[in-house]
């Protein structure tokens, strides 16, 4: 018994005394496929490449075992591996399928969300009809009315143009790819019945997409990538609207003042200062929100500019 065991191990460790001829060409091609599969890069397309060559290799192995060596056990294993890799390829193709967007939403993704690294699949969930709605405005139609419309949504202009008024004073315009009501959305509390402090009116036929606050909060919890991008876009939009107001502020003598100066910015606005100041005072009343300080002794000119008293700054 011991002698037989030693002989077996000796035969296992020693090289073969007689070498057979090379295997069939199918066997060689199968191993060539396995060699190329090991060169696949570490990416989604690389994994698809790997499984594709696995399918080719195991198919050749199955053919070799069925027709050449007639080994049913080898055929069963290799054919099973081929089916398994085929399922992986189908799943990979499904994952890599192109995500199509509506024609009017494609520019929004390309210009705003794609540069911030948001995937098309995440963006499509964000703008789907379950959470967002696309609406239209004709010339003169209001998106929001001052002191009447609740500020419980966020709108993004797709096409057209809208003007923002405080009473009858033009504050600024909203162009395509800009938010219609980012200051209100950023500053209003979710559980309060806050109203718009301005009126937003379309100056031409326009289309916009909007989200209610509740549905947006729900989808942003599920899509943190979109949530980060949206917070950056809203903050940038608010900043651009504040910068647009800079052209409407001037001293009594007529020359401009930069509202980014320390004496004008980063302090609450008294609510008695008038139309434009009241709007930004209410919008950014929270200490964490951005506000700017102007004098209470200004008046609106006919062209919409603001006159500031030099002694108050």
TrEMBL record:
Spell out the subcellular localization from the entry: Membrane
Q: Which keywords does UniProt give here?
A: Membrane, Transmembrane, Transmembrane helix
Q: How does it sit in the membrane?
A: Multi-pass membrane protein
Name the GO cellular-component terms. Answer: sarcolemma
Predominant localisation class: membrane
What residues does the POPDC1-3 domain cover? 23-248
GO MF entries: cAMP binding
| GO-annotated biological processes | heart development; regulation of membrane potential; striated muscle cell differentiation
Give me the segments passing through the membrane.
Answer: 47-69, 75-96
Name the PANTHER family on file: POPEYE DOMAIN CONTAINING PROTEIN (PTHR12101), POPEYE DOMAIN-CONTAINING PROTEIN 3-LIKE PROTEIN (PTHR12101:SF30)
Q: What is this protein called?
A: POPDC1-3 domain-containing protein
């Amino acid at each position: 018994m011991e002698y037989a065991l030693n002989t077996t191990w000796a035969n296992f460790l020693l090289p073969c005394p007689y070498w057979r001829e090379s295997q069939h060409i199918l066997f060689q091609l199968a191993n060539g496929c396995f060699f190329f599969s090991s060169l696949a890069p570490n990416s989604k397309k690389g994994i698809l490449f790997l499984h594709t060559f696995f399918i080719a290799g195991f198919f050749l192995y199955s053919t070799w075992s069925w027709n050449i060596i007639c080994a049913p056990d080898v055929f069963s294993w290799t054919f099973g591996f081929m089916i398994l890799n085929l399922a992986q390829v189908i799943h990979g193709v499904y994952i890599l399928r192109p995500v199509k967007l509506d024609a009017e939403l494609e520019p929004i993704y390309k210009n705003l969300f794609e540069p911030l690294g948001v995937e098309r699949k995440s963006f499509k969930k964000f703008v789907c009809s379950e959470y967002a709605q696309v609406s239209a405005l004709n010339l003169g139609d209001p998106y929001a009315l001052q002191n009447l419309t609740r500020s419980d949504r966020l709108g993004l202009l797709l096409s057209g143009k809208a003007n923002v008024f405080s009473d009858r004073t033009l504050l600024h315009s909203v162009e395509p790819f800009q938010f219609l009501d980012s200051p209100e959305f950023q500053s209003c509390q979710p559980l309060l019945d806050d109203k718009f402090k301005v009126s937003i009116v379309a100056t031409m036929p326009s289309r916009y997409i909007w989200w209610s606050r509740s549905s947006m909060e729900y989808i942003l919890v599920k899509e943190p990538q979109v949530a980060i991008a949206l917070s950056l876009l809203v903050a940038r939009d608010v900043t651009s609207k504040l910068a647009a107001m800079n052209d409407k502020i001037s001293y009594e003598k007529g020359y401009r003042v930069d509202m980014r100066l320390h004496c004008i910015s980063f302090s609450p606005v008294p609510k008695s200062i008038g139309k434009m100041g009241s709007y930004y005072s209410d919008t950014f009343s929270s200490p964490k929100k951005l506000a700017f300080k102007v004098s209470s002794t200004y008046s609106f000119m006919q062209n919409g500019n603001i006159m500031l008293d030099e002694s108050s700054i």
